[in-house]
Amino acid sequence: MSRNQRMQIAVVGSASNQLSEVQRMLAFDVGKLLIDSGYRLISGGMGGVMEQAARGARSSARHQPGDVIGVLPSYNKAEANPYIDIALPTGLGVARNAVLMAACDGVIALDGGSGTLSEIALAWQMRKPIACVGGEGWHTRLQTLALDERREEAIALCPDMDALSRFLRHLHGRNLPAYRGIAASAVKQAEQRDYLQATFADARNIGAPELLGYGSEGTVFRCGQRICKIFHPTDFTILLFTHLSGIAQTLVQSQATVAPVPLFEVHLGDYLVVHYPDFASHAYTGGQRQPMVAFLRAMRAAGCCLSNVKAENFRCTDDNRLVCIDIGRDLMPYSHALFLSMCKRAFLTVYYSAHADFKRMCRYTNDHDDFDGIAACEGVAHSASELASRFDQFYAEVTRADAVPG
């Protein structure tokens, strides 16, 4: 990801050109606030709220060409409002709402009718953060502000621009995973436990499943002496099975003396499951430079990378080794770019895992080659150049020619 690839926030609302003055000014202020806050604005590119938000965005002193994007329902670029920098014709009509929601990192809804309601529903399904502003529109009728059981958090109501500013600041520190497709059904932990019981525990006589944790990708159980992660079914289950099978084979073929990831097996039936032998370990909370260096060396030797390094993705063994237990989409084949990114996040995990802005720091490394944004965080005692020098030393230790992996 290039340093110039900033988060894109969708502004949705009425396309009517008969907005009240209050609605016009609200849309204008929202558009300007987005660019002022360092985001890009993406919308349906037409009139009404979309045009006024684009006009506000263009008025920001921080506006740069390309910051205002319109995803058009028609095939004709000329139909975009005059404040759009980049017009993207789709020819999809109202179906372009799905494209718009897929392209954004968050949504701000300003009043609006059934079209806005469809965009809110799509954003909800795709797990995009949603904020509603203004005193009219569908969001005022959503009594619970939670559309279904897909997510725990509610739609954010922002009664004023200060509240919206807080919402946007919060987004900077969030780690927003890409949408992985609509789940085949609402997965119940009891159903997953029954499946593991029949497939693993009964078949292998290894004991009843014991719940260990529940996350966005799936549920983790202990089945006797094995750890089992059962994945929520999605449109991409077969691809994930193929991906993880390849990683499992890579780990075995590496013949590493000390595996940085448990040597897992992959099962695909009614559910996708990865499982591996349980091992004595305790939680890792950050710090410990040398175990992290050894882990990174071992990952390099094994031909693997981890795209989302954070303390909770590791366990620490009794002999002080770090083992990655984040076996899922974030476990990737080795590439130089991914390895460098992993090392930067590992560096931050060692020195700043407990920092309040840790997630924001990690996101900054995705978009920038420098450490300016990290040095600017409250409580960071080193300058950007000092941080860069410390990281260079860390990376050199990981990659030096005489390093013994593991």
From TrEMBL:
InterPro entries tied to this protein: CHP00725 (IPR005268), LDcluster4 (IPR041164), LOG_family_nucleotidases (IPR052341)
Pfam families linked to this entry: LDcluster4 (PF18306)
SUPFAM superfamilies: MCP/YpsA-like
PANTHER family (alphabetical): CYTOKININ RIBOSIDE 5'-MONOPHOSPHATE PHOSPHORIBOHYDROLASE, LYSINE DECARBOXYLASE-LIKE PROTEIN
Protein name as catalogued: TIGR00725 family protein
Organism classification: Bacteria, Pseudomonadati, Pseudomonadota, Gammaproteobacteria, Cellvibrionales
